[in-house]
Design goal:
Layout (H helix, E strand, L loop, with lengths): L5 E7 L4 E6 L3 E7 L6 E7 L2 E5 L2 H6 L11 E3 L5 E8 L13 H8 L4 H4 L7 H10 L12 E3 L2 E4 L5 E4 L7 E7 L3 E6 L16 E7 L8 H4 L2 H15 L2
Length: 240
């Protein structure tokens, strides 16, 4: 994307959380500035918070375990929140969800805010709950989240293995939003990140204006199911 399309940018430190509303026709550009960042993310319809990201539908209708360019991210009503229009990494975890306080304490030790301030050891689950609470949601409203910039692969027995060096400095993911979407995100460690020092990689994020979706768009046409998803979006927008 060009600088001319840039609306806003900011740096989100490691172990942080944030939320924002993305408008239809805009893109969210995620940049792993230093390498090794994990970005957990959830999506909701801001006008009906009961409509939220659905990981099983996203994966099964596109016949995939990993997420990468040309994949669409679905709501539980068969609509498309956003499409991955660019991905320099090629593999993002779709199944492991958010880290818990117990996992973070076991892998990195406890570091509370009262003692360590902004260097505390935050976890993904609590981060998403804090952001969800800003919109009147609670634990029951959390769904299975995506972990961008984290690669997890299964072995022949089905055990999952985290790949610590999968994301390099400068890797980029771009999400084009196909409907107005509430985005919750955090930069806490992946739940399978190996023990050691608490990861400190920040996220650079940018908001851009996106080009209109063309008839031959790769995300729209990568699967027949995606074309139906875009059709569902069109019907939804007619009624708004």
């Amino acid at each position: 994307m060009s600088d001319a399309s840039l609306i806003y940018q900011d740096l989100l430190p490691a172990g942080s959380h944030w939320s924002l509303q993305m408008k239809r026709g805009t893109s969210l550009r995620l940049i792993d500035r230093d390498g090794g960042v994990n970005v957990g993310m959830l999506f909701y319809n801001p006008y009906n918070l009961l409509e939220r990201y659905n990981a099983p539908d996203t994966l099964k209708c596109q016949h995939t375990l990993k997420l990468t360019a040309c994949h669409c991210l679905y709501s539980d009503m068969g609509r498309i929140f956003c499409a991955i229009t660019h991905d320099s990494m090629g593999w993002h975890d779709s199944i492991c969800g958010a880290s818990t306080a117990a996992q973070i304490a076991a892998n990195f030790g406890e570091a509370r805010y009262q003692q360590y301030r902004n260097d505390r050891h935050q976890n993904g689950q609590h981060s998403l709950l804090i952001e969800a609470a800003k919109y009147g949601m609670g634990e029951a409203d959390l769904a299975a989240s995506i972990n961008f910039f984290s690669k997890v692969v299964p072995d022949d027995g089905g055990a999952l293995s985290y790949q610590p060096d999968a994301s390099k400095a400068g890797d980029v993911v771009e999400l084009r939003f196909e409907m107005d979407t509430l985005v919750l995100l955090h930069t806490c460690p992946h739940p399978l990140h190996p023990p050691g020092d608490y990861p400190r990689a920040p996220l650079l994020y940018q908001l851009h204006m996106a080009a209109p979706v063309a008839d031959d768009d790769l995300c729209k046409n990568s699967r027949p199911e995606n074309r139906r998803g875009y059709h569902n979006n069109a019907l939804y927008h007619v009624g708004r």
